[in-house]
Design brief:
The structure is a single chain. By secondary structure, the chain is an all-alpha fold. The chain is rod-shaped. Helices cover about 85% and strands about 0% of the residues.
Length: about 70
């Protein structure tokens, strides 16, 4: 096997090994953002403030990222 092919094989194997960990971290981040959003929504209902729409957008971006990580 040539050096280039060996390096490519190693890179693919490394990425395949890291994929479940990355997927788990993305899922945990989404769950964390969902809990933060729920807390903010409760505070908003109690104080009549404007909802942070950026949090909503970030939550959906992370959700899309998780979908991409699923093979």
């Amino acid at each position: 096997m040539t050096k280039g092919a060996a390096a490519a094989k190693y890179d693919v194997e490394r990425r395949a090994a890291e994929a479940p960990t990355a997927k788990k971290r993305a899922k945990e981040a989404i769950e964390h953002l969902a809990s933060v959003q729920a807390t903010e929504e409760e505070e908003t209902e109690n104080s009549c403030c404007v909802v942070d729409l950026n949090l909503y957008v970030r939550l959906h971006l992370l959700h899309d990222m998780l979908l991409v990580l699923q093979f």
